[in-house]
Give the backbone structure.
Amino acid sequence: MQFTINRQAFIKALNDVSRAISSRTTIPILTNIKLVLNDEELILTGSNADISIETTIPQSDTSAQLVITQPGGITLPATFFTNIVKRLPADNMTLAIDGLRAAITSGASAFTINGQDVQNYPQLPEMEDVQSLSVSAAQLVDIISQTKISASTQESRPILTGIHLQLTGNSVKAVTTDSHRLSQRIVTLTGTDADVDADVIIPAKAFNELQSLLEGQDRVDIKLAANQAVFDLGHTTFYTRLLEGNYPETDRLIPTESTTAITIEASALLGAIDRASLLSHESRNNVVQLSLKNGAAVLTGNSQEVGQVKEELGAQTIDGDDLEISFNPDYVRDALRVFNGKSVDVKFTSNLRPFTLTPAGETDNKQLQLITPVRTF
């Protein structure tokens, strides 16, 4: 195996597949990058058993300047190999394999590192009974960024670490909850005539890595099977396992009516919560309080050790019963960032029941964040 390639193009491909590689794995060879060279292209693969990323550099890609001398394959230590390539002195580099040793040359620099047999690397999963659809990359990024914040990071309930996707025709409903908050996004897919009926739970960690790969993409082809999802981004293919089990029924958690409501610019409320959390983060319980009384909205943050902050909010409207409610400011701050500076309706039913944030004037719950308050008495 031997090839010469533009170093910057190679680094981009290495960075892409490295997103799937973890230093903590029970399969030692998965700390390596797999390189396979045929007569037409170079294929790089990275995997941690849960997600796998494969990217292809074709000889026809003029920017990559790939020159194939001899086909073959090897796996090389991912971190070490990538660090070497990033530090090479010249614009181009050559990789030549002799047995299980790789010779890397660039300019006046030459490295030799040991690899492992490509045959020992696990095969990418084969898929049966596949449902396929094509989606806008921008819409997929929208779904991921607006729901991943509420996915649990606790492995004690693995099902809650995923994003629950329900696909019906050309509509996608995405939901996450960690039992303290909930995010929901409902999107009608554009530019597709797919008629898919699927109910899958994709790990939020996988979507995090996929989101980074979606930058600059136009459309994404998705294939769904019983235990795998595959996202085809042209020269890069992203594989992820699906989480098994039944996701909780979340519709019943969303209030259907409210007794108190406030409409406010998301950026204004976000700024006030940022300031209040300066004090709450110094307190043991990290809680801020919102008081809605006599047509005024006041946000308070306390720390017995440091002091207090109190700020009156410039709300557009305040309706309904007076209310005092306490909540984790970090949860609300994450939720507000989703709204990109729009005005939001915040609706309450009582100081102990979950409250919702939605775009001002919208009542269809297509873009919804739900937060459970904190009991302070």
In short: The domain at 2-120 is CATH 3.10.150.10 (DNA Polymerase III; Chain A, domain 2). The mean pLDDT is 94. Residues 182 and 370 are 5 Å apart (CA to CA).
